[in-house]
Design goal:
The protein has about 425 residues and is an alpha+beta fold. It is built from 10 helices and 7 strands. α1 runs antiparallel to α2 and α9 packs antiparallel against α10.
């Protein structure tokens, strides 16, 4: 189907190119006959004057037919029109007028339009050659009806030579402009195809990422859900066992068992919440609503919220560099991304030096950095750092879903920012979020 379509399109291009060149040839020939009519009026050849006047309108008709995508009929009629004119000119004015040169213009279309079958080309060339041969035999020694001054005939001969050459130039110019237009159209189509190919490639990559995400989710979910489900099941069985004894359960034991069940449910709920957020981010359904915010006040409130809920004595330090200025950001997206990074900083640096949240106000950009002094990230695992469900080998004993960093990265990018990370194993990590001013 594709090959047939390409062939038809190529045929249409050839047809369009040919029609434009024929329209140009007919219009230029029409106005040539208008000039000839004036010339015949002055040399007093009424028959040729009538012919030239009629031909002026006829060639406009042929150009109209070509314009309406007729090919064979106007081509045949215009060829007959020219041949009759050549015969009449030889009869009334004489062989010396050089009207025979227009026999050179007539075969041009045969070579310009490649879609004609070979038999039609051959037949047309034979008829044209035969017509020229007959005209030559009859009129080469024929005395014209009107005796025209030899000097005038020389000018007419020269004029006909230039006119025939001019018509050929017009045909070639129209043909060339048509080719250039088609070339431009093809280049534009090529650009569109490249753009669509890039879009398709992007879509395929996204589909691939979604496929990998689904695979990772199945693998991780089966592992992540197994532990809390096992905790829920074992503690539910323990409650049944306590109930089976018929004795009253001590409040301390009951609280301990129910606490385990509640904790396991919270862990499963947290994982599901992260998965739902990631699904929204992947589908592009998160809205971006920027507004002017005082970033210092914004971060002070966020730091205060985190420090208020820390019961182990640790807290988050807040540092400001440069001259503060307001920025246009989406506060919800910024809260989510910073909260994920701050939570990680506090979680992975328990018992270590307190982490820092720093705002560096630079002239053309601002940098938000969250630096901890915890366990750090192995260098070989950096390429996978922001992938969904990825967790480094050295955090196996610390609770987490492996979705926090990937969610933070997505939120930052929706907020028109960029995120980067640096780390030294055993010394801590630093995550930087950069926004253009």
């Amino acid at each position: 189907m594709v090959k047939v379509s390409d062939k038809e399109e190529h045929s249409e291009r050839n047809k369009s190119r040919f029609l434009k060149s024929m329209i140009g040839a007919c219009v230029s020939t029409a106005f040539l006959h208008l000039l000839l009519a004036i010339f015949y009026f002055f040399i007093d050849v009424p028959e040729m004057l009538i012919y030239a006047a009629i031909s002026f309108f006829l060639f406009l008709v042929w150009s109209y037919l070509f314009k309406n995508k007729w090919i064979l009929l106007p081509f045949i009629l215009s060829s007959i029109n020219c041949t009759i004119g050549i015969i009449l000119a030889n009869y009334f004015i004489g062989w010396e007028s050089n009207f025979n040169i227009y026999f050179m213009v007539l075969p041009a279309a045969v070579f310009l339009y490649p879609n004609w079958e070979a038999r039609y080309r051959v037949f047309y060339m034979i008829v044209l050659g035969f017509a020229y041969f007959i005209v030559y035999l009859i009129f080469s020694d024929f005395k014209a009806i009107y005796l025209i001054n030899s000097q005038i005939l020389q000018y007419v001969s020269m004029l006909n030579s230039f006119s025939a050459a001019g018509i050929m130039v017009v045909i070639l110019l129209f043909l060339n402009s048509s080719i250039l237009k088609m070339q431009t159209d093809l280049e534009n189509k090529n650009k569109d195809l490249k753009y669509k190919a890039a879009e398709l490639d992007d879509s395929l990559n996204k589909e691939k990422e979604l496929g990998q995400l689904k695979t990772s989710f199945v693998t991780t979910a089966s592992h992540q859900f197994r532990t809390p489900l096992a905790v829920i099941q074992s503690n539910a069985q323990l409650l049944e066992m306590f109930n089976g004894t018929g004795k009253k359960i001590e409040p301390v034991k009951y609280k301990k068992v129910s606490g385990r069940i509640t904790g396991a449910i919270a862990k499963m709920t947290g994982l599901m919440d992260d998965v739902l957020i990631l699904g929204k981010l992947t589908s592009g359904s998160i809205q971006y609503v920027p507004q002017e915010i005082d970033l210092v006040e914004f971060c002070e409130n966020l730091v205060e919220e985190f420090n208020d809920v820390k019961a182990d004595g640790s807290h988050l330090n807040f540092v400001i560099k440069g001259e503060p200025y307001n920025v246009a950001l989406d506060p919800k997206l910024l809260t989510h991304s910073l909260s994920n990074l701050i939570s990680n900083a506090l979680k992975y640096s328990i018992g270590k030096k307190n982490p820092d949240l720093t705002i560096d106000f630079k002239p053309n950009e601002l940098v938000l950095s969250i630096k901890d002094y915890g366990i750090g990230i192995p260098e070989e695992e950096f390429p996978k750092l922001f992938q969904p469900f990825f967790r480094a080998k050295n955090v196996a004993e610390i609770k987490g879903t492996g979705l926090g960093l990937s969610i933070a990265k997505e939120y930052v990018e929706i907020n028109k920012g960029q995120i980067s990370a640096s780390s030294l194993l055993g010394e801590g990590s630093c995550f930087e979020i950069t926004f253009k001013r």
